[in-house]
Amino acid sequence: MIVDAKSVRILGIPFFTGTVQQAVDRMLDGGLLVVPAAPALKDVQTEAAYREAMLGADLVIPDSAYMVLVWRLLRPRTRLHRVSGLKYLRELLPRVEIRYPGSTMWIMAGEKSAQRNLAWLKQEGIEVPPSHVYLAPIYGNTGGALEDKSLLARIQELRPEHIIVTIGGGTQERLGLYLRQSLPYMPGIHCIGAAIAFLSGDQVSIPEWADRFYLGWLLRTLDEPYRYGPRYLGAIDLLPLMFRYRSQLPPLSPSTQG
Known about the structure:
The chain is α/β, with parallel strands linked by helices. The protein has one domain (7-253). It is 44% helix and 12% strand. It has 14 helices and 8 strands. A 6-stranded parallel beta sheet has the order 4-3-8-7-5-6. Helix 3 packs across helix 9 and helix 4 (65-74) runs parallel beside helix 14 (238-245).
């Protein structure tokens, strides 16, 4: 894990406080980047594998507007600015290291998502060979550690310099840690979740102004209220957790330690 002067600990996790350009520069050298959203971050006390992924990442960027606002309330003098996964992806994609064919493997959430995302990438001048597209299976939401030997074998054969993971929060972090710990070399593993879907049309579009003013969650909820409404309401549980533990890592719930 990268811990330096450009980080602030929240719930024991060092969140990067530099610029998005600095975050991308650092990750081009390899390592695991995670972008935890509030609905998943609240589980850092109860989900052991997710917690391990947060602590095992090389860079954690503060994507959650809710978390950032609560932290500013708790520590008004602490420098912490939100860097969304969408903003990170917008900065990452123009980099030449990502763009040339065969340099990057894309892990997609399914066939439909892959088709839309790949079509959009092609429009942006990024050609992705079929060998470098992996359709993730349903890993399950049990919260335990996961593995994917088929994916691991594909990466070991192709040895891409970068891996971009576009599956759901709470799962992608565990997958990213599995790859980081299992691969014999260290690519950049960018767990950016749904960020590309906001650009490709696979999910509701989130323009830059909405992302800047912390309104992405609202647009997603208005577009699919039954899907995202309960998810974001559940994120309220992060508030008492932050008020109680602040910079400290919460003790792991006894029910998950075994």
